[in-house]
Amino acid sequence: MLRATRSGIRRSPRETVWALQDLDLEVNQGEIFGIIGGNGAGKTTLLKLLARITEPTKGYAEIHGRLGSLLEVGTGFHPELTGRENIYLSGVIMGMKRQEINSRFDEIVGFAEISRFLDTPVKRYSSGMYVRLAFAVAAHLEPEVLLVDEVLAVGDLMFQRKCLGKMGAVAKEGRTVLFVSHNMAAVQALCGKGLLLEQGRCREVGPVEDVVHTYVRNLYDQSAEARSHFPVSSSRFPIAIDDCLVRIEPNGKGGSRLTIELVLSSQEQMRNVGVGVRISSINGTLIALLGPPVANFYVEELQGETRCFFVCEEVDRYLAGGDYVIGVWAARPNVEYLVRVDEAAIVTIPPRDVFSSGTHFDALRYGTVPLPLTFSLEDAESDARASSAPGT
Fold it and tell me: Where does 232-366 sit in CATH, by number?
């Protein structure tokens, strides 16, 4: 239904937008629980409900235990107070006595690595320094429940690793962590279970590997229409990728053969064109970049249309079962790309019992590379007797 306004512009009636709706969730003590979803899915709203920053319109959010939260840069600290004063202020807000805060003060400062600026007002801190101190306070004042939003992305790489390790240690002590992040690798490495939110509703809850896979695969499917359609031409060079065909088929030996057919064309004669393939996991992690200079894949003379074939006879011996994104490119080796398509196709490799253990090796649970390790045992007592025998 539409309605008219004074200006004559017809607008739709006001609609109620629910940030969260029909969400029924329980997180147990000692769990590290990941919450993922696109922007606007309701992740931060959920944490704000749990932190009592926002009251739910309907329903309730219940937490048992003392709560520590790190929701966004600027939350929880008084900008005019120094780092030292804000540590004590945060502890008091959490209901701690001064003696308890004193016992953890040096550990907090050491973790944050900002002792030089401890007596500087936090309004003069960089965002990275602010997050360092905020996380150190939230994690070391021993809350039973710790809420962590995407703010860790502000810190440098080493501090992010340090924070992830600390959250793991917190969970081992029997405390609970709810972790919101767009870093799927961090979510999978840290969390045991996860929640996928989509437009404020629960899309999936369960083992974090399954939840992350659903989210990333859904993103890939949604972007299919937006990805480049063939042919893909270069804006600077007379070359194009006309098509890329990817097939997985039985190889007749109990395994799977991967075939990638790349169709190139050029309006002019080109010599020594390097061609290659990029294989990535579904969440964007690079698995292999195959082509010049590491491999001698060249089209010596290109004019008109040329078909290039890349074949791996037993791909499931080198890659675990799962979804992979195939990219293709043509380049002047060690100089520049002539034309490239990073998401030319997606392929599913069937899982295989690589180690004859009765369990199929799949990328979601065991990683992407089924490394052919061997295993053996050695009798330490036999070695000791052998070394003490005459003539040794």
Answer: 2.70.50.60
